Amino acid sequence: MENKKNIAYSILELAFISSGTTVAETYKNSLDLAQKAEAMDYSRFWLAEHHNMISIASSATSVLIGYIAGGTKTIKVGSGGIMLPNHSSLIVAEQFGTLGTLYPNRIDLGLGRAPGTDQITAQAIRSDRMQAANNFPGEVAQIQEYFDAENSHAPVRAIVAEGVNVPLYILGSSTDSAHLAAKLGLPYVFASHFATGQLFEALDIYRREFQPSVHLDKPYTIAGVNVIAADTDAEAEENFTSLLRMFIGVLTGKREHLQPPMPMPDDLMMLQHNPALRDMLKYSFVGRKEAVAKEIARFVEQTGVDELMVVTNIHGHEDRVKSYRIVAEIMKDLNAAPVA
Questions:
Q1: To bridge 42 with a disulfide, which of 37, 111, 180, 290 should be the other Cys (CB 3.0-4.6 Å)?
Q2: How confident is the model at residue 1 (pLDDT cuts 50, 70, 90)?
Q3: What are the C-alpha distances in Å from 280 to residues 44, 115, 125, 137, 200?
Q4: For residue 226, what is the enclosing H or E element?
């Protein structure tokens, strides 16, 4: 009896600053998590770019990628993603070419189009970012040129990037990016840990329109899910209150550090039924190992994704490590299970 295809499993890290924790401690915890994830056979440890958010410390994403890669040995480290319209394509190529040289075959460059912040901050980052956002396909093509070993005769070069192996990934939360990833023959990553509505449509577009390239001969899909796993359902649900409050803060504009868990209060229980919140949390799997395993298996079967990108925002560092350990056990069991 043949085995199912192996589903890779990875981590998306936002370097959330828990209340009572400093930025420096947050970075140390991120590195500790990456080192433990490496031992648990996670494929990648990606860091997301966000700006002007009191609770997120991954704003200087490429710098943090270097810190994590320098403290680990084998796990792939990358961006989930670099918000390309915020940056010069040349500078991004130079940064990731440098990283790819320092940590050979371990650096991923995930590229997104959103600002990763509010509009006022986006304007402060780059005044012409809307022009760059509208030319996202052109900006991606420019990055590819800078990494091309044959770019040596161009008038503008990212010399440290030429010929360096840094795979590109296209990130998306709508169908627009699916068309681009398919056209370029690049792997496609969907942010279904918060943008759930167009997941299946985007995956279908990408697979249907995919054109093989020198980078990839067949479609490769990654999708994000929130997971809060613990020894018991009650413990997981209590830890989930921190994530709930964070999402409510996003919707209401009340930003704060990741708050400690609490027994599920009635008001949070009721707020879970808010349509906007319910939609954002559609792919949030909370509970003991057996319950989470069923949810993950169903998600993988329904989507047919090649890789799961797990997001676990829990206030306590050790509780977060435990949740990721449970997910690693689930994925190993899932990959070992024979085809029915």
A1: 37
A2: very low
A3: 24, 19, 27, 27, 15
A4: strand 221-230
Residue 104: burial class (beta carbons within 10 Å; 0-12, 13-18, 19+)? exposed
SS3 16: strand
CA 152 to CA 147: how far, in whole Å?
A: 10
Under 8 Å between Cβ of 185 and 211:
yes
User: How would you class 74 by CB atoms within 10 Å of its CB: exposed for 0-12, middle for 13-18, buried for 19 or more?
Assistant: exposed
pTM of the predicted protein model: 0.94
CB contact at 8 A, 331 and 290: no
Query: For 202-221, how does the pLDDT look when each residue is reduced to its tens digit (9 = 90+)?
Result: 999 999 999 999 999 999 99
Structure tokens at 15: 């370097």
The CB density around residue 43, as the number of other CB atoms within 10 Å, is 20
Quick check: helix, strand or coil at residue 216? coil
CA distances from 284 to 27, 95, 166, 223, 293 (A): 25, 34, 31, 12, 12
Instruction: Kindly state the average pLDDT of the residues 12-34.
Output: 97
Rounded CA separation 336/128 (Å): 50
Question: How many whole angstroms separate alpha carbon 117 and alpha carbon 193?
Answer: 17
